[in-house]
Amino acid sequence: MPRAHSFREIGARGLRVLLAAGSLCLAACAATGERAGGGAAGSGGIATRRTGAAIAKNDVEAADWYRQAAEDGVPGAMVDYAYMLLHGRGVEENEAVAAAWLREALDRGSARAMTVLGVLYLEGRGVPEDKAEGVRLIRLAAEKGDPLGMRNLGALHEHGLTVAGKVLQVRDGAEAVRLYRRVAEMGDSAAQAYLASMLLRGDGVVKDDAEGLVWLRKSADQGYGPAQSHLGHLHEKGEIVPPSLEEAARWYRRSAESGYARGQVRWALALAAGKGVGRNDEEAVRWLRLAAGQNDAWGQTELASMIMEGRGTACDLAEADALAEKAARQAYGEAKLLLGRLRDRKHPPACPAS
């Protein structure tokens, strides 16, 4: 089974991923500060300004304080509480209630609420799907200067959007680059990665590998998982940067630790093959389980393959079959091939002899 995926790491999976992957990351882009997704949050607590002492993180308490502030009429708290509701952090997940709080914050003038509600309309989460309304809200938020709105409007321009023959957003690479650059210069790690991708491909701008690499590194250094994975892939293939399996593995590990599913798969495959790092099948399986747990089809397929082979874990054909079916239902071709082999009556698979 092929182990490498030669696709564009940033934005290759379409508009929905570009809009959803970073758009609802309000922990880093809270409406209270109106900041767009900068660097990765540190671990172990938030340092206080005066003493540097760590404050223990507690999602349940955070959600409760956000709720109380929201009920007191604070628009930023309404958006933050909506984020907690959308992701089930510290409170039971409830997209409809989240959308209601976002609507309340929007009515009180929050451009960030306008952006996030626009994404929900695009995806039909907590509100009836209405892509025209989603585009309208995101465009208005961008016009009001919301960095997250500008980034998402850039995504719409990069891909264009047509529904039932009606063009809701014309594809305009140059405008996407302009918007991404504007937000990237504010320090937004996702926008930096998207801008890097446009520069590396020469989409909407003259191809510029040097500048693209600068922005990609800026994003990766801030802890943005997709950028870290992309940078590792460039080192693995020796494209733009010197080839180095060790450097590739280092970036894959950082991407995996950020929680990015595809980074977890790439780090797992490096471990399984001993590429740039000591071979460790057990660790590879552990990381693949994390990616598969995020419903990543590639991770599910690679995990199924490892389980079939009894590598790093006990062979379990039933589990492998279930994983391959999940991935196949996401239209992942390699999973369909694996599922066919698992269910082939003439040549049934068997666990390797112990």
UniProtKB/TrEMBL annotation:
Q: What is this protein called?
A: TPR repeat protein
PANTHER family for this protein: ERAD-ASSOCIATED E3 UBIQUITIN-PROTEIN LIGASE COMPONENT HRD3, SEL-1-LIKE PROTEIN
Q: Which SUPFAM superfamilies match?
A: HCP-like
Q: Which residues form a coiled coil?
A: none
Which organism was this protein described from? Azospirillum brasilense
Q: Which SMART domains match?
A: SEL1
Give the signal peptide range: 1-30
Checking Gene3D superfamilies in the record gives: Tetratricopeptide repeat domain
Print the keywords alphabetically.
Signal
